[in-house]
Amino acid sequence: MKPQLTAMGHDQVKNRLATLKHARTVARERMRTARKFCDFREDVTYVEAVRDYERMEADILELERLLDDATIVESKQTDVVSFGNKVVIRERNDEETESYRIVSEAEADLGQGSISSSSPLGRNLIGATVGQIVHVESPEGTLAFEVLSIEA
Fold it and tell me: What distance separates the 2 farthest-apart alpha carbons in the chain?
């Protein structure tokens, strides 16, 4: 199955990729500088520079592959929670509401109010309707959430 991204998530991944490519240039220069002043077998600075560079290269390849393979999904107003929708929920017996946008793992950021469609909550919200109670298993036990609204 092709990975999915929201339009905003696609832009975020492109920005992250651009940032990494710039950082890769800095990391290359750091390796060159460390190479001039070290004994390769023992120099921690050089070894760290190489590891950082290799990590960046792997991340860049992964993001490029994601952007090449991903399908951009436009969020639509529906009666059923689907990928890209913003969902307002309330835990049973609680007055406070929470809202989350259902997105891919690559763009999920709880601090920004987005959760992965493959997370326990996201997985259980997909397909739910307004008024429906969804149950999510957690370390504290089963949590019940009521779907209050679905937005595009």
Answer: 66
